[in-house]
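LOG
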Amino acid sequence: MLTTVLLPLKVVINFSFAAIITAIIGCLIILIGLPKLLLPVPAVQRMLSTLANSVFRLWGYAMSMLFGLTQPVRWHIEGDSELHRDRWYMILCNHQSWVDIPVLMHLASRNMPMPRFFLKQELFWVPVIGLGCWTLDMPFMKRYSRAQIARNPNLQGKDIATTQKKCEKFRHIPTTVINFCEGTRFTVEKHQRKNSAFQHLLPPKAGGTAFTLQTMGHQFDAILDITIAYPHSSKSTVWALLSGQLRDVYVNVETLPVTEDLIGSYFEDALFKTHFQNWLNSRWHRKDKIMGGLLEQAGQPPTVTVGYFSSK
């Protein structure tokens, strides 16, 4: 009874903490971005980018604190732990909930470079978000359609070249690039609609991951294949976190080498495209087994079975 009564209070505490901290950190990053915008001197911009990255790490620490603010979350992290803040990584991750981002921030704030995302060019003009992400040197991608390339062949490969140029800034600041390969959060309905061949996951989309490797592959020290599970959150994981009902977070980390056969022109080379899709699908089959192992470790049987769908 008392627990039920306290739920609204926990939601207010957790939501207010997350919102206030995000607003403060966001404003600090934007303040750093203003002189960076006005002073296009490489040495000055690198210094300001490093400062912004340090402030961004404070947000990572804050998101990590969120997991213990009103509830004793137990972390079950297995796999590779020899990670370093001064290296470059690409993350392949399943997408269960929006809570995945604070989970990755929790991991990164301790022993990984702070994460970056590839963003659509249009997001630059979104108030606060655009300037904040620009200050943090997150690449804004401008993709050209086949129709645009057909009308102007000079655009062929220009998106790759432009993004590679923007990513040169990452040579000065160790970076982790995140790819949620499924492209959307997992739900039973999506699993059924996509007729997924995986028991606990949606089919992965290879294009974005291949593009990231084509653009930055030679900068990465390793690929981090990360699997996240919330075994005891039968309802919304976001609600479970905010209401203090999230009890366990299971994470598996596997480090993979960046080999030359993973770097190629996915959108122009049909043989490479097939090879890369096969590679990513094989990783996803392995991830599916790891996911099942995490759920079994937590003492929860699978909630989804290939062929038909049911809720526990």
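LOG (cont.) second protein
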Amino acid sequence: MSEDLMTEKIGRAKSAAPASISDDATVIVDGKVVVKGSNGWTCLPDTFPGDGMPMCNDAVWMEMLDAMVNKKDFKATKIGISYMLQGDRGAGVSNSDPYHPEPKKAKDYVETGPHLMIIVPKEMLAGITDDPSSGGPYVMWKDTPYVHIMVPVAE
């Protein structure tokens, strides 16, 4: 990979979170650590290879992401936070099925602009809507081990 492309990917990864987090975060590009951080956060230029959706995650989110990618079970026992301040860049997902084969054709397809994602133990989700059009935080993937709260932070 050219130095210019690597610099662009590192910049895209770090754009997912406020500088107070991303400046000292580890950056992983194509499965390899390219910047060793010091604050326990990990930033990725792509949520999934080539999708252009950068994110910065704490350790709980990295554990959940690994479980989701590898279709393993996951149970939240503490709070985890992920930043996606660039939004999902038009990729979108099914709000109920992280593995929907054609998410843009899902009945519950959703695109979210800049947002935070918060993992909490399931019992803490009571009373939070799963309707993304409700105008505030909502639950995504509620009937899966990867359930989390989406918190839009801008239009």
